[in-house]
Amino acid sequence: MKQILVIIILLASSFSFAQKETKEAQKFLAQKKANDFVYQGNEFVNDADYVAAEMAYRKAISEQAGNIAGTYNLGNSYYEKGNYEEALFRHEQASKSAISKTDKHKAFHNIGNILMQNKQCKEAVEAYKNALRNDPNDDETRYNLALAKDCAEQQKDDQKEDEEKKDEDKDKEDEEKKDKEGDDKEDQKDQDKKEGDDKKDEEGKPKDDKKDDGKGDDKKDKQKPKQQPGQLSPQQIKNLLEAMNNQEQKVQEKMNAEKQKGAKSKSEKDW
To answer: Is residue 106 part of a domain?
Structure first.
């Protein structure tokens, strides 16, 4: 009975060992294929054939999902083509999957470069800092960090100036709007006054009459000279002159009638 138990244990151990060996062999084979595809991709990059390189690196990742070299180099191929969004995504993947400090440093360094290309200077500063945490002796990373800091500071100043300019423009716009509203109100007052004057004119009375309020006749009366006692009024003088003219005309007519009759003719002469 003990012998049978020992045989079963040995068989189970052998089967487990065989399975383990099989998994190790499969893992080794997948890693070898992935590395081969990475090698092919690198060759394509050397020939500036980034499309073929991208395909090779994708195959490497397909063979071994955690293949750092494939993910990292795929990100580099996207960077060379100017596809910064996809390049950033792949390098972030590499930074998370990387185990060694060297691989992490490379991934974060390239993340910083991509962010600088995207004018994201503040974020690039943090990426370069993460790279230096994994390799403090990299001079290129330190140099890029200094550039990123200057860029971030300049962007901060530019943003401040833009905000100040926006505030000035808003204040100016508000002032112009206020002035315009004041002008509009003044124009409206003038228009209302004009309409009121026009309405008064339409009632049939001249503006001067409206202003005088019927006092014009009084002014005329005031301008007439008052008749002194014992003096003839202008109307009386006029009537008198007309009567004199009429009398003179009658006298003239009578004299003309006498002329027409002529003197009496004398009798014939005596012989």
So the answer is: no
